[in-house]
Amino acid sequence: MSAAGPLLTALLALSLVRVAAYDVEAAGASFRRDGFAVLEGFAGADEVAAMKDAMAELEAGYWASPQAAQATVFRTDAGQSGAQAQSRYFFDSADATHFFEEPDGKRLNKAGHALHLRRDAFGAYSRSAKVATLLRALGYVRPVLPQSMYIFKPPAVGGSVTSHQDASFLRTAPAQTVAGLWLALDDATLANGCLWVRNGSHVEPVRRLFVRDGERDPSMVFVRPPPDDSGANHLAPPFLDAARRAAPARVPWEGSDVDEGDLAARGYAAVPAAAGTLVVFAGTLDHLSLPNTSPLPRHTFQLHVVESAGVAWHASNWLQTARPGGFLALGAESGEL
């Protein structure tokens, strides 16, 4: 990368709109305009510490369990269709807390996908009034929570997460309504793999879908959205102005690593985030993270929410709950999907 690269990266990061945690209306405006919002201080130090302590206990239990001898590696590159996408352990994590390792077999990549159902710090945060209040400011009427996950991004080992849209993996119809709530539990920096986003890309349609392969169980494959699929073609949430939806973009780096030197030219901006900062973004926003090349971890806790008012969870999604009543409802006015 040229000498100007780090300076340009820093300027892009500084230009991002950041709002105080309590200013949810400003967050909603940023979300609709840019596809994401940064809420500093959304979680307090005690809340962050409680989640990290709870995960340390869960992680110790995993390494002492028989499951650790039958490791499931989690991948986000071109090999993911042959990794977790054919793992019963992965499919069965929809209503449980399962652990997925890094390729070295010595450290964890992630834990998921139902930490929000636990009666601990993760459940308390997921069910909190501040999360429900934020979602109402974003336009949700009856939000439900299908998925939560804890990402470890360990020092010097945590790999890149390739460019993608969350809506590819968590599909609703007739409109695409998923949003990600990305909470930093450590300071996320350029060195340890902070989030990168492509500002404004949330108005672009979903480029590919991760769907169940009817011929094999369990198995997932990537397909292009069908032309008549309204959930794919109207990928912006229903509360986004329809006039701002755009035609499909050609994104040759979909699902592939992007060199840091090319990110700015392709419209990406880094989002450094102090511990306790929340980045909330539309499921159609193009985003990624680079490898952790530092000696420090980059833990995050992430929620994915969808609308349940007049919206259906797609049967082709990998995640299908067996929970009585469906997905966890958030807020007093929420329903179950």
From TrEMBL:
Keywords: Dioxygenase, Iron, Metal-binding, Oxidoreductase, Signal. Its cofactor is Fe cation. It comes from the Eukaryota. GO terms for molecular function: dioxygenase activity. SUPFAM superfamilies: Clavaminate synthase-like (SSF51197). Residues 1-21 form the signal peptide. It holds the Pfam family PhyH. PANTHER family: PHYTANOYL-COA DIOXYGENASE DOMAIN CONTAINING 1, PHYTANOYL-COA DIOXYGENASE DOMAIN-CONTAINING PROTEIN 1. This is Phytanoyl-CoA dioxygenase. It comes from Aureococcus anophagefferens (Harmful bloom alga).
